[in-house]
Amino acid sequence: MIHICSLLLIALAALPCGKVRVNQQNQLRNCALEADVKFAGAVIPKNSIVFFTSDGVVKKTFLARDTAIAGHVCRGGGDAWETGFYPSGRLRLCWLVKEETIDTIPCRRATILADVIGGRVGVWLHETGRLAHCEAATSFTVGSCRVKKGDTVNSDAAGNISVRGLNCGRATSR
């Protein structure tokens, strides 16, 4: 039996859930969407699987198809590509469909091969929407650092860049 609070959370979130899964405490774990739904300024497609925190807040989704969210096109099409959200609903994690420049940093697109070989092709964002880290799509120079294609580029909330443990300075227009 589904916990009554789980049903209330689905209703409050206004999500058209079909198949619902609960955890061992009968709390809502995830659901498959029966229709497209507006969330976080985007349209999350029908058949996407939405996961919730124990408080019923949307935590992540496996998008049914490639989807534009917060100006980034995130990879979908099954359960290989997790798209993550902050409790505020802002985008936290996106696996890019194509290479994209974010805060002047060229970020690599996500592929299964790149993920297996590189291991960090997901793009992480700060809650403000600024880049937190990505894998470099090309070689370039940022501040005092020469970045190689495939390097993980980290950026703090203020825009200070680090690569391979080296502080590079702030990203500026290239």
Describe the structure.
The chain is mainly β. It is built from two helices and 19 strands. Strands 1-2-5-6-9-10-13-14-17-18-19 form an eleven-stranded antiparallel sheet, covered by helices on one side. The model is unreliable at 1-12 (pLDDT under 50).
Key words describing this protein structure:
174 residues; mainly beta; elongated; disordered N terminus
- Low-pLDDT stretches are 1-12
Q: Helicity range of the residues?
A: under 10%
Sheet-strand content, in percent, reads 35-45%
Largest sheet: 11 strands, antiparallel
Main-sheet strand order equals 1-2-5-6-9-10-13-14-17-18-19
How many E-type strands?
19
**Which structural class is indicated by helix and strand composition?**
mainly beta
Q: How many separate structural domains?
A: 2
Sequence-ordered SSE layout with sheet pairings:
Blueprint: H1 4-13, E1 17-22, E2 28-33, E3 37-39, E4 42-44, E5 49-52, E6 58-62, E7 67-69, E8 72-74, E9 82-85, E10 91-94, E11 100-102, E12 105-107, H2 112-117, E13 123-125, E14 131-135, E15 140-142, E16 145-147, E17 152-155, E18 160-163, E19 166-170
Antiparallel strand pairs: 1-2, 2-5, 3-4, 5-6, 6-9, 7-8, 9-10, 10-13, 11-12, 13-14, 14-17, 15-16, 17-18, 18-19
